[in-house]
Design brief:
The chain has 330 residues and is α/β, with parallel strands linked by helices. The protein folds into 2 domains: 6-99, Udp-n-acetylmuramoylalanyl-d-glutamate--2,6- Diaminopimelate Ligase, Chain: A, domain 1, CATH 3.40.1390.10; 172-319, Hexapeptide repeat proteins (UDP N-Acetylglucosamine Acyltransferase, domain 1, 3 Solenoid). The chain contains 4 helices and 37 strands. The longest helix is centred in the C-terminal third of the chain and has 14 residues, at 316-329.
Length: 330
C-alpha cells in the first residue's frame, strides 16, 4: 500500500477550522508520510505529545514534527520541529483521519451473491458485499457500505454514508447518517423482557434509533424497545462488547467503554462517560456530564456533573476515602 503524503497546510487548516490556535515555523508545503507515536515515528512522520510520562521518549523522538504544548517544546531535539497547540490530543483526533487512506467507501457494487428482497429499496451508490441479506421493508440511502455476511432488516432505514462491517445484524432500526457499525454488532433484536411470576415472554414491537455520526463497536448488542424506541444519541461512541437493553435512552456525545451493561428503561443524559465493565441498573435516570468509573455498579439515580465509582456507585471522592481507610485497616 502506498501512503499519500499530507501537506502541513492541510493539517494547519483542519486545526484552525476547529478553533485550535496553531504556531509553527514549518513551511506550508512541508510533507508528512504518516502520524505515529513518539516511540515509532520516523523522520518523515508527524507525532504528538500529550502525556508527561513519555517525557524520556520525547527527548529521543525521530519525527519530522510534533504536535505539542508550548511548555514542552524545550524538550524536543533539533531534528523535530514543534507544532504548538493547546491540546495536542484533540489535534491528533482532528487530523488522524486524513492520514487514513483505508477508510471504507461504497463503490456502488452489489454482489450477485447477496439476497435482496423485492420489498426493499436500495438507493444510489450502495455497496453490498457477498452473502449479505436485505430483508423486507428496508430502505438503504446513498453511499452506504455493507460488508459480507450481514443481515439487514426487516423494518430498517439506513441513512446516507453509513458503514456496516461484516457479520452485522440489524433489524427494526433506524441508523442515521455517517454512522459506523462494526463487525458482529446486533441491533434491533428482541430484548430480555418477561413477566416475572409466570416467566411469560413479553413481545417487543418497538425499534432502535442510532443518532448521526455515532459508532457502534464489535459484538455490541442494542435491543429494540418494547413499544417505542431504544435510542443512542448523536456523536456517541460505543466500544466493543456492550449490552444496551430495551427502552434505554442515551444522549448525545456518549463515550461507553467495553463490557458495560445498561439495564432496561434507564435514561442517560448528554456527554456521559462510562468506564469498562460498569453496570447500570434499570429504570434509572443518569444526568448530563456524568462520569461513571470502570467496574462501578450504579443502583440509584445520578444528578448532573457527578463523578461516581465503586459498588454501589457513590461520589468518587467518598469512594477514594473508603478505599484508603480499608487499606489502612488491613
Amino acid at each position: 500500500m502506498t501512503l499519500k503524503k499530507i501537506k502541513y497546510l492541510e493539517i494547519k487548516n483542519i486545526l484552525e477550522k476547529n478553533s485550535l490556535k496553531v504556531k509553527s515555523n514549518i513551511s506550508n508545503q512541508e510533507l508528512f508520510l504518516n502520524i505515529k507515536s513518539i516511540i515509532n515515528a520516523s523522520k518523515e512522520d508527524l507525532s504528538f505529545f500529550s502525556n508527561q510520562k513519555y517525557l524520556n521518549e520525547l527527548i529521543n523522538i525521530r519525527a519530522k514534527a510534533c504536535l505539542i504544548e508550548n511548555k514542552f517544546v524545550k524538550f524536543l531535539p533539533k531534528n523535530c520541529k514543534p507544532i504548538i497547540v493547546d491540546d495536542p490530543y484533540l489535534a491528533l483526533a482532528l487530523i488522524s483521519n486524513i492520514f487514513n487512506d483505508q477508510k471504507l467507501k461504497s463503490n456502488g457494487h452489489i454482489s450477485k451473491y447477496s439476497i435482496i428482497s423485492p420489498k426493499a429499496k436500495i438507493n444510489n451508490n450502495v455497496q453490498i458485499n457477498p452473502f449479505s441479506t436485505i430483508d423486507d421493508n428496508t430502505e438503504i440511502f446513498e453511499n452506504v457500505y455493507i460488508g459480507s455476511n450481514s443481515s439487514i432488516g426487516p423494518n430498517v432505514i439506513i441513512n446516507k454514508n453509513v458503514i456496516v462491517h461484516d457479520n452485522v445484524s440489524i433489524s427494526n432500526a433506524v441508523i442515521m447518517e455517517n454512522c459506523t457499525i462494526k463487525s458482529g454488532a446486533r441491533i434491533g433484536g428482541t430484548g430480555f423482557g418477561f413477566e416475572m411470576k409466570t416467566k411469560q415472554k413479553i413481545n417487543h414491537s418497538g425499534n432502535v434509533i442510532i443518532g448521526k455520526n455515532s459508532s457502534i463497536g464489535s459484538n455490541t448488542t442494542i435491543d429494540r424497545a418494547v413499544f417505542e424506541s431504544t435510542i443512542i444519541g448523536e456523536y456517541s461512541n460505543l466500544d466493543n462488547l456492550i449490552q444496551i437493553a430495551h427502552n434505554v435512552v442515551i444522549g448525545d456525545f456518549a463515550v461507553i467503554a467495553a463490557q458495560v451493561g445498561v439495564a432496561g428503561s434507564t435514561k442517560i443524559g448528554n456527554k456521559v462517560v462510562i468506564g469498562g465493565q460498569a453496570g447500570v441498573s434499570g429504570h434509572l435516570t443518569i444526568g448530563h456530564n456524568v462520569t461513571i468509573a470502570a467496574k462501578s455498579g450504579v443502583t440509584k439515580n445520578i444528578s448532573d456533573n457527578k463523578i461516581v465509582a465503586g459498588f454501589p456507585a457513590k461520589d468518587i471522592k467518598l469512594w477514594k476515602k473508603e478505599v484508603i481507610m480499608n487499606t489502612i485497616k488491613k
